[in-house]
Request: fold
Amino acid sequence: MRSKKANQLNNNKVVQLASGFTLIELLMTIAIAAILLGIGLPSLQVLLSNNRLTATTNDLAGSVNLARSEAIKRGGSVRIVPTVLGSWSDGWRVVADTNRDGDFTDEVDILHRSESTTNAIQIAGTGTHSLSAGHLEFGRRGEVVPVTDVFSVNLKTDACKTKYMRALNVSVSGSVAVTQPECI
Reply:
């Protein structure tokens, strides 16, 4: 520690030692942070889009597996239907005719409900039994009904921001396979 004499000048003025950052040091730090943020932000957006796409695909695959196992367990038909007719991007439900009234529309028929996906995820069906059929149905042995149908769904982000989309395929036997074809 300095004595008082060491802090005095010729005119007996006390010299105060400065602490902290200069304005130039602060501006340089902010500029470097802005550059790093500019480099990292686009890759963060792609990462978030990819995570949303993966989560939606896993949710749909889980719903398909649930519907198949419930059909086997109950010994009857179980369906996956869109929450809003014709729009799978608004969510879906796994339903069974639990009250045996011949329809799958009652509140007690709902086994599982999946909420709406973000608008950034597009879900479209392909194949002989696409999502345009209105539902995917499993019979009492876990097979897709009718047995001749092939169920395939493509999930992708708006404008294919990620390199890959997801394709969810349900075979005639009811098994689920998810692939990652390049986005088209």
